[in-house]
Each structure stands twice: as C-alpha cells, then as structure tokens.
Amino acid sequence: MEPSGLDLGRPCGLTTGTVPGTPRNPSLSSAALGAEGTGASMLRGHARAKVDSKGRLKIPSEFLETFLELSGEGRRVFVTSRDGQRALIYPLPVWEQLEAKILELPTTRPSVDLYLRTTSFWGRESTVDASGRVLVHPLLREAASIYGDVSVFGKQQILEVCDFELFRHSPPVLSPQALTELAEFGI
User: Fold this and answer.
1) How far apart are CA 85 and CA 136, in angstroms?
2) Could you tell me the residue range of the domain that residue 69 belongs to?
3) For strand 133-135 and strand 124-127, is the pairing parallel, antiparallel, or unpaired?
4) Among 184, 175, 186, which Cα is nearest to 8's?
5) Tens digit of each residue's pLDDT (9 = 90 or more) over 22-36
6) Beta-ladder partners of 135
7) pLDDT recorded at residue 164
8) Which of 10, 32, 56, 94 has the fewest CB atoms within 10 Å, measured from its CB?
9) In sequence order, what DSSP letters do the residues of 86-122 get, joined into one string?
10) DSSP state of 179
C-alpha cells in the first residue's frame, strides 16, 4: 500500500515518459530527468515478464531504459517488499531518498519501526546485469510466488512484481472509498 493507504499499481497502459512541472531531483543523474530538465522519468503501466530458474527477473523492455536511467551508472537496486506478497524494485538512488525521509522520522513510532523491520527483512541490494535482469532473492521469491510468468507494474520510480496468476484471477480494483479519497487530491 502507498503511504496514504491506497495501492495505485493498477495497470494503465504501457508508457514511460516525464511528468511536466516535476522539480529536478539532484540525486538522480541528468539522464534520468526529462529532456527539458523539468520532469523526472516515470515508470507507468503493466507488462508481463519471466523469472528464470535462477530467480532473475528480466525487466520488460517497456521499462528497461527508464529504470536504468533511474538506477544510475552502477545499475544498483534495492529489492524489498512491504507485505511479502509482491516485490518492489527500487533504483538505489530512489531507495536512498526514501531512507533519508525515514531518517527524519521518530523510530519510536510503531509504524516507522514496523516499516523498517519489514523492508529490511525482505530487502536485499542487487544489480541489473548486462541482459537487463535483476535477482529476486529466494526468501521473497518463495513468499510471493514469484516464479515463471509475473506481472510487472511501473509505479512512478519503482517496479512492483507479482505472481501473474494472482492478478489474472483477482485484478486490482479501486474501491468507492479509494476513489473518494483520490478525488480529494484532484485525481
């Protein structure tokens, strides 16, 4: 779930691009910024992908270029989960921005402590190899049933990976309550 309690990972087309008016992010490389320098690259939509027998996800071509731009020269990523049911693949610079925000929060708050413990339990650093693959470590892969055919969702600057069959039989649906809350934000 997103911090607001909403899961906005619903498939919505296969596009990547920039968001006009998004301020520059100094920790991202200039290649990860929009052509005009005013928007950050975004991952959008849904694609099917495969996880091989060694647990490596082949990042779909729809997402690869933008994801590599966000990951920077080292192609480093942080693979984690907030629930053990899906993998979240953060370009390491994006994860480090989130860590900086977390550092400002009081770790005595139960939600902050739980978030840190959960993402640490499921989390591992990895790299995107020359073939565009990233390892989903065995603990998370087994818990989330991330084998063979998977669904990959672009969620702004991260990728979410789920068992394809889970979403084929039970696609995400926005509830009336979620739609009302989104309307309050002008969405």
Assistant:
1) 13
2) 46-166
3) unpaired
4) 175
5) 333 333 333 333 333
6) 56
7) 87
8) 10
9) SEEEEEHHHHHHHHHHHHTS-TTSHHHHHHHHHHHHH
10) H
